Amino acid sequence: MNRLASEPSLYLRQHAHNPVHWYAWGEDAFSDAHTRGVPVLLSIGYSSCHWCHVMAHESFENEETAALMNELFVNVKVDREERPDVDALYMQATVALSGNGGWPMTVFLTPAGEPFYAGTYFPPTAGRGMPAFADVLRAISDAYANRREDVNAQAEQLAERLNSMASVDGGQAPSEAMLSSAMLGLARIFDPNQGGFAGAPKFPPSLVLDFLLRRAWAKEDRHAREMAELTLRRMAEGGIYDQLGGGFHRYSVDGVWLVPHFEKMLYDNALLASAYALAFRVTGTQGYATIAAETLDYLVREMRLPNGAFASAQDADSPGGEGAYFVWNQQQIIDALPEDQAKVAIARYGVTAEGNFENNLTVLRVAMHMDAISEQIGERAEPLLAAARAAMLRARAAREAPARDDKVIASWNGLAIAAFAQAGTAADRADYVEVAEQAAGFILDEMVVDGRLRRTHQDGEPLHAGQLDDYANVCHGLMALYEATLAPRWLSAARELAAQMVAHFADPAGNGFFYTADDAEELVARTRDVEDQPAPSGNAQAALVLARLSALTGDAKLRETAEAAIAPVHASMERHPQAFGTSLVCAELLLSEVREIAIIGDLNDQDTQQLIATARRSAGPYAVIAAGAPDDEEAVAAAPLLAGRGLRDASPAAYVCRNFTCREPVTTPDDLVAQLVP
């Protein structure tokens, strides 16, 4: 009996008609395994995962394989996006047992939930160094039936190891020497030709880019700026970027950003839009603002839900095959466009008869710059390309599109809220800020229940307890929205969620945060989330949020908690800086002389707005800004930095402070710049 048809998760429902007798995660499955005396086969994936679909087609839809699974195991299917706590625990086990991890993840458990064997994708027939899935099933079942003591001993040892991995010591406070060492480490693995770090497959290093751009701004670090800019340019020129519709695919299978793995994830696009918006602020280069805008426009057009929040992902596969929705051949372009537009599009995007993908198809990339095309055709190519892009996008829309997973994930929506708020501020786009406000309103109104955040919203219901990254990333988004609007509602909500985060996720020993809450479902081990994956480490993002809140509120305890969270990863930031971008940002903030800027005045007053704009432009990446009228009790309650400050000679005034000790207030933009710029 397959029990997945009524599950809210799209990924689980994708498996509802498998002949496998799937359970969703829960007590019923483990009780059944205990009663039958068989192991649990745990399969973890997500709806837009290409290789998850491949293994499903090859094995889970196969009657013989499914019969073997049903006979020998109790089978449990988990959506990693819905239950990241389960995924994180068993990913640690998979890496410990097999040396690598990924999805689909296949883990064999005792009826007590303890893992004893694990892998990722298993093919239906042996090859490329991998055993056939059916052979694995028989071998695991035989070991459990005939060598139970050995299996249980290994499971107990691994459970102890997983628990020990969650234990950390106090570590070491961040230092300038550590940051310099991390920069050297990044330089050593930087690709000087294509940007990014390491070779194929190549993932967008969104969080390292955030660190590099902030360092370029705060320290005028030329090398940091060069590494960030080369990476940003190469990604925007490559096939990993959707040249027609905007937005980024998950990663490129090669080392030159050309052929992507075609799923589009909300977190990637939110983080990269933030990075390009920050690059625009740091460099003033309009091209970065354009990529940020095209990425956010894609999210609004294709990922925004009627409730104002954002869906989680678009699938890697479409009915015509992987990438079929996005790729082109020459004849398709010729048929879709007038001759002059077709010539420009073919030249711009490097479309050849042979193609650069399967079946003579081409993944579009920037193959020729516009000046060269204009010279080649004897007229300005930009208007022709703009018309060609619009026509090709309309033609593509007639194709059968990849499926979209409409579940709302709090964590990823927090990143999207931040991206729209930050880009709205950088590019003076009030419409982007409004999008952020609507998404934030939905999260606060529909996904906070009795003061606690839920992980997902599906089928009209908030579901699953929020994890550390949900709290941290939503707080991050709310604080970015406060910075964009200076509306106290958003800062007050961030403070309330941060208080819940500290109360339920902080290590009582004072060494950072656990990934799961203190009252969450008890698993084999309680994990930590200290490395950035595609999205920020929950521990690092929580620390960053608290450090910034401390500067706005004067609460020294928040800063101490942030420092304690970052200290245990001091050595890891030096050794593996590419995996600790968010921690590096937090470390640099903690080492910086953070300027606290209080602007007192009517927010509708032009002089007040000029002071706010000057502060945003000149204060640097680690400053905090609060603003409000002197008699606005709500504004002062949200941001105590405003308390006790008043107008100056009846004019709006700016106070530049450090540790809530302020210099003489100023009333003109020029005087404010003089206090902010060394």
Structure report:
It contains 27 helices and 20 strands. By secondary structure, the protein is α+β, with helices and mostly antiparallel strands. The chain folds into 4 domains: 10-165, Glutaredoxin (3-Layer(aba) Sandwich); 177-316 and 405-591, Glycosyltransferase; 326-398, no CATH class; 596-676, Glutaredoxin, CATH 3.40.30. Strands 1-3-2-4-5 form a 5-stranded mixed sheet, sandwiched between helices. Strands 13, 14, 15 and 16 form a 4-stranded antiparallel sheet that branches. Strands 18-17-19-20 form a 4-stranded mixed sheet, sandwiched between helices. Helix 12 (286-303) packs across helix 17 and helix 21 (538-553) packs parallel to helix 24. The protein is globular and about 85 Å long. The mean pLDDT is 95.
What is shown here, in short?
The chain is of the alpha+beta class and 678 residues long. It has four domains: 10-165, Glutaredoxin; 177-316 and 405-591, Glycosyltransferase, CATH 1.50.10.10; 326-398, no CATH class; 596-676, Glutaredoxin (3-Layer(aba) Sandwich). Strands 1-3-2-4-5 form a five-stranded mixed beta sheet, sandwiched between helices. Strands 13, 14, 15 and 16 form a four-stranded antiparallel beta sheet that branches.
